Amino acid sequence: MTDVLRRGRASLAFGFFAQGVAFALLVTRIPAIQDRYGVSDALLPAFLAAVPVLAGAGSVCTEQLVKRVPPSRVLRWSQPVVLLALLGVGAGEHMAELAVALAAFGLAVGALDASMNMLGVSLQRSYGRSIMLGFHAAYSLGGILGASLAWVGANWEFALVVSYLPVVVVLLPAAFVGSRWYVDAGVPEQGQGQEQGAAVGESGAVVFKVLLPLCLVMAFAYIGDSTVSNWSAKYLQDVLGSSEQMATVPYNVYMVTTLLGRAIGDFGVRRFGAVAVVRMGSLVAGLGFAVVAGAPGAWVGMLGFTLLGLGLCVIVPQTFAAAGRLFPGASDAAVARLNIFNYVGFLVGSPLVGALGDAWSYRGAMLVPMVLVLVTLVYARSFDPQPARYGGGHERPRTADVGRGSNGL
Fold first, then answer.
1. Is the N or the C terminus of the chain less surrounded, counting Cβ atoms within 10 Å?
2. Where is the chain membrane-spanning (predicted)?
3. pLDDT means per 10 residues in the chain (409 residues)?
């Protein structure tokens, strides 16, 4: 262990934290953004959908970009763009300005998410133990702070630019200075991953075939996450009969339990292994959705959302880590492709639950993400770091978290 790695870990954790603050400030002030720009209810879904679509495009571009420049450089320059785009959302006056700011935000977020997780995977390999959940815990902490700042802005009726400007003024220079200590590390030792390269093939089709189980797990996890984010308040108030004030609590509880679960999750991975932690997280999340679907009242529903936070929180970080282990010689490309399914789940989850709720019932709609997250149990062996046989008769190389050097493709 070196001071370089420790500083790299701390600076990357701050990058995750800053991203959590920025994203929460955007999504929690959507009603205020809609009012400021006069966006109609019919047009709002198009604006909201454009952000994850462009983020997916940004992640695809990052996969190609990191073949020429290190992920740390992509992260160093994409994070300021995200923060400045957030400020642009708050400072604009016309619909075209909102469209430009959201487009910049979406593209930069895709590059930011991909490069952050690339660095997290490579740092974990250099550390030789699970640290990935800690980075995502920092993101959750940032999300809690961002949502709290958004509540203050809404409660005191601050203009968007007044809410956003102090945050950007503080985070922008801090993130840029912290980026000096980002570490591109963790290429496998010589010879490790040669069989993987043979399995990939020239077309790269087999890479996606091997990565597909993790892509599905990622999408299912974000379908569950977006269900909580978008429907927990409505569900508690309209289905379980809570007050309007109490209906705002489940998402905050979900975020807090997500933070707690991620804060201790790395210890669980080190003690019991990634497969066991992912299986347990899937079972707890499935139980959470079942409790929500069958809850007789608001307090039991709150318990269900608490379980969802504890269960879902471990899946996404471990999915990124597993992709890095599967492709130790091409972890950047694997992470970038996997990251696209983050946005697929986000795009699918909210409309899916809403359509099922309107056509059937919202209690029944909660069973769909429950089933999807339980499908993760089928793919749990994909999180195993030990060698295994897979398509094409090639043996997956041992992918223990070892190695030093620059994280290139």
1. N
2. 12-30, 42-62, 74-92, 131-152, 158-183, 204-223, 272-293, 299-323, 335-354, 360-380
3. 90 97 90 91 87 96 94 97 97 95 97 97 93 96 91 89 96 96 67 41 54 96 92 90 81 90 96 96 98 96 95 97 89 93 93 91 96 96 66 38 33
